[in-house]
Specification:
There is one protein chain. With 68 residues, this protein is mainly alpha-helical. It has a domain of 28 residues. The two termini are 24 Å apart.
């Protein structure tokens, strides 16, 4: 698998980054739950007035596209 840092940096990624990326197989199984949490967060931000309805709609639409 190609790495993002190939050819850009002299060394490989730090151990912390490598450990974070090692969770990707688990993250793939949880992405629908993560998107559901993001939808709830966007809805809350809109409800309390920190995000206007147009922006909230755009984010929710992007989440729908991501999930599809």
């Amino acid at each position: 698998m190609a790495t993002l840092w190939h050819g850009r940096f002299e060394g490989g990624p730090a151990d912390a980054l490598r450990a974070l990326n090692d969770s990707l197989p688990f993250d793939r199984r949880m992405f629908r739950e993560d998107i559901a949490g993001s939808r709830a967060h966007v809805s809350m931000l809109a409800r309390v007035g920190l995000l206007d309805s147009a922006d909230a709609g755009a984010v929710l639409e992007a989440l729908d596209t991501t999930e599809a």
